[in-house]
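DM from R.C. (forwarded with permission)

"hey, sorry to bug you on a friday — could you get me a structure for this? deadline for the figure draft is monday and I only need the backbone to look sensible"
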Amino acid sequence: MNKFDVAMMTTAFVWSRLSHGKKKKVGAIIAQDNRIVSVGYNGLISGLSNTLEVDGKTDPAVIHAEENALLFCAKKGIPTERGYMYVTCLPCSRCATRICQAGIKKVFFSEMYIGSNGDGRTVFTQANVEIEQIKLEVEISLNE
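My reply, with the result:
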């Protein structure tokens, strides 16, 4: 871990604050050569309601932060191969498969969180994608 890793993870926390999630706010950054190439946070398709949970259950249409960051790269033609991803919490197994398929080389996460989709550690191990925990406690409030 170096100063760029800490800066990227801190930035992921900033982006997580843009989520309208009540249960969990997650942010993700994709970086190449210590430069941010994409960001994402958990939410719905652009232009839809910002209600991510109904009666305490997460809407199945919610796009995870990691997916949002990867989808932006796909939309804009930004390569992800050999990139690094910084996520505020451990990616679920569904996101891990997408991260591995996109060619991400290493994933940094801060919080050990295991949601209903399980966690991606087994997927990362099978795909030889490195994971490293960066424990940060970041307090950020964005005024809307």
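R.C.: lifesaver. The radius of gyration is 14 Å.
me: no worries. Residues 28 and 87 are 4 Å apart (CA to CA).
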